[in-house]
Amino acid sequence: MSSTVGKVIRCKAAVAWEAGKPLVIEDVEVAPPQAMEVRVKIVVTALCHTDVYFWEAKGQTPVFPRIFGHEAAGIVESVGEGVTELKPGDHVLPVFTGECKECRHCKSEESNMCDLLRINTDRGVMLNDGKSRFSINGKPIYHFVGTSTFSQYSVIHVGCLAKINPAAPMDKVCILSCGVSTGLGATLNVAKPPKGSTVAIFGLGAVGLSAAEGARIAGASRIIGVDLNPKRFDEAKKFGVTEFVNPKDHHKPVQEVLAEMTDGGVDRSVECTGSVNAMISAFECVHDGWGVAVLVGVPNKDDAFKTHPMNFLNEKTLKGTFFGNYKPRTDLPNVVEMYMRKELELEKFITHEVCLSEINKAFDYMLKGESLRCIIRMDG
Ligand code: NAD
Ligand code: ZN
Q1: Which of 10, 107, 118, 180 would staple 210 via disulfide (CB 3.0–4.6 Å)?
Q2: How far does residue 271's CA lie from ligand 1's centre (Å)?
Q3: Alcohol dehydrogenase-like C-terminal domain spans which residues (predicted)?
Q4: Is the pLDDT of residue 63 over 90?
């Protein structure tokens, strides 16, 4: 690898030229890393809903041409000036939100919302010089959430890279760099269900099933899955979900159905849908006195959360979380170790696999609702 240090690397990348149009595999030039940056050889990446959402560009400022991708694992090729924590050969997980380790958030034990490197979906350039490190024939191709992992090489801020155990299989732990950690952390770090408690999970996609995995690990005795799509229930059994409720099967609000099933309400609920109605139900279905609801789903722009304030006086608690409250650099290596100790299963999330040249298939699987996670091997 050392022969490429300081030089431009030419490699393959899947470029999104226009919103909603199939990605095109192109030869791109990847510039060397500047101060506090790292150039990473991406080994495997996965497709997450957030990539699809920004590729469709229906609600946000479109930034094109762009290289998407943010759930991945790779190997450090070279480091820029000032990078001391990483060296060539280290195995890393890129993360869409960073940890500078110096701001008020990074210094607070309670927060993971770094001032410098918090997710920014509008920025398509590096912080150091406001420019892109990707180009085709001199024309810049923009970055996505500081990761752009649909390229065989990417340049990433050191604060957005978690150094992990080199023995960890990258084609499994890559999914910890976004969705799975988000759901898992929502339960383990924020909802914190006591052993033997009852937990309701709203939305049984990859994030909700990871939240269910968290409830199983915490020792919950009942895990109730709530989803509008009955197809999700079969898969969810593999994730320790013990009971299922489809709001469409009932005439009364789902919070009332859950209250009847649980003698007054669940101990904890985790909402992973993005639907504001599910968010309200997830809050109102927790038990008076001790119930805690955690919101994870990203709502629509104009949504408003409406509930009677009496619910708070009755000692129901409402919380929300970003990336499962994990600090990317400090905490992700430990989540990888949970997998290595076999406390956490990742294989069951990976339902599909393609190589880089077939990346558009991964989009099809997700758009049709067939995949939980499709991984993309970057060498072919
Ligand atoms: P997904 O689309 O795979 O799963 C969502 C599930 O919710 C689907 O099965 C759908 O049928 C179900 N659903 C929708 N409306 C419902 C309702 N009213 N009641 C019950 N079920 C309903 O999505 P995912 O990838 O698992 O992500 C889930 C959410 O988490 C998304 O909103 C995503 O944007 C968000 N997310 C948040 C963070 C964070 O840090 N807070 C990080 C990643 C993803
Ligand atoms: Zn910070």
Answers
A1: 180
A2: 8
A3: 206-338
A4: yes
Domain boundaries, the chain: 9-177+346-377, 180-321
Q: Characterize the bridge pairing of strands 139-141 and 24-30.
A: unpaired
Cα dihedral 248, 250, 255, 260 in deg (nearest 10): -150
What was the pLDDT predicted at 3? 86
Q: Output the CATH code of domain 9-177+346-377.
A: 3.90.180.10
Class level of CATH domain 180-321: alpha beta
Measuring from each residue's beta carbon to the nearest atom of ligand 1, which residues come in under 6 Å? 49, 178-179, 182, 202-208, 226-229, 232, 247, 272-275, 277-278, 296-298, 321-323
The CA radius of gyration of the chain, in Å to the nearest whole number, is 21
DSSP 43: E
User: Which whole number is the average pLDDT over 133-145?
Assistant: 97
Q: Is the Cα dihedral 257, 237, 202, 246 positive or negative?
A: negative
Rounded CA-CA distance 53/39 in Å is: 26
| Predicted TM-score (pTM) of this structure | 0.95
The whole-number pLDDT of residue 2 equals 62
Ligand nearest to the CA of 108: 2
